[in-house]
Amino acid sequence: MNSGRPIGGLSIDCDNLWSYLRTRGDSDWDTYPSFLDVAIPRALAVFSDLKLKVTFFIVGRDAEREDLQGIWGDVAAAGHEIGNHSYDHRVDFHRLSPAELRTDFDEAESAIANATGHRPVGFRGPSFRDSATIRRELISRDYEYASSDFPTILGPLARAYHFSTSNLNPEQKQLQKDLFGGFSEGVTSLRPHFGGSQGSRLAALPVTTFPALRLPIHMTYVNFAADSSEAFARMYLRAAVRMCRLRRIPLNFLLHATDFIGADDSLSADFLPGMRRSHDDKLHFLKGELDFLSRRHDLRSLREYSSAIFTSAPV
Q1: What integer best gives the mean pLDDT of the chain?
Q2: Cβ atoms of 56 and 80 closer than 8 Å
Q3: Is there a domain that residue 278 lies in?
Q4: Cross-strand bridge partners of residue 83
Q5: 315 occurs within a structural domain
Q6: Rounded to an integer, what distance in angstroms lies between the CA atom of residue 193 and that of residue 196?
Q7: Quick check: is 187 in a domain?
Q8: pLDDT < 70 regions, the chain
Q9: Is position 2 within any domain?
Q10: According to the model, what pLDDT value does residue 52 have?
Q11: Cβ atoms of 11 and 255 closer than 8 Å
């Protein structure tokens, strides 16, 4: 049913603590510490309270963990879409060979399907990285969409800050030389389009950034601003949403699992952005911002968002 509000997409990247520690070069990442057992139940509760159905992009390695099996079953039982976020969340995912990509997709799809009962039809690359080889693999596997484009100018600046605050050695920095992308990402399209080879129906769904400014507006960035001033963070997000409406740019809004944990959770995640407030304060703020967005947009999972945009048919 048409609500009169523009269609919007809503998704959450379920990146786990170990993947952040590995990207920082911390030596104990390979013990695979997790905060998803805390973050995902909170996310499910928030989405239930706001009556939202979203896309959960799950990493295959976490899908097959015995300690998280019940959680992924809860995600599927709540009616949320299940997306593929690769098997191992490698920062060099976009540079893998075709054979390596096939192996990663095989392992991720198997783990995610076993944990949730659903084979993904949507994909988001680790660290928003993409390549023609990845798109060909997605097309060969009949994926319906990819949401790996992140049109921002901040990539090189974010990478420089990351390198300056990490424990990476020169070899690891070389491996992450493309992390967060380059300035060229800032001029790519904000609008959904078909991103595969000619004639393919692989939809490309860019994560929305601030039009003209090309600055991030995903919840983690907004939470980072809110650590200093919640009033400014609200004003910033509202200005971005207003600009999207003026330019008729569909909203594809992103969250991360880290948006559901706070400084009081004692999960060794204090180096992450948006970790200066308690989880109660963050959840109260997050629910307010999602309520604001849902009153102005008909927020859907990315599969429904893509279908509504490209077919103009009721979903």
Answers
A1: 94
A2: yes
A3: yes
A4: 57
A5: no
A6: 9
A7: yes
A8: 1-3, 196-199, 312-315
A9: no
A10: 98
A11: yes
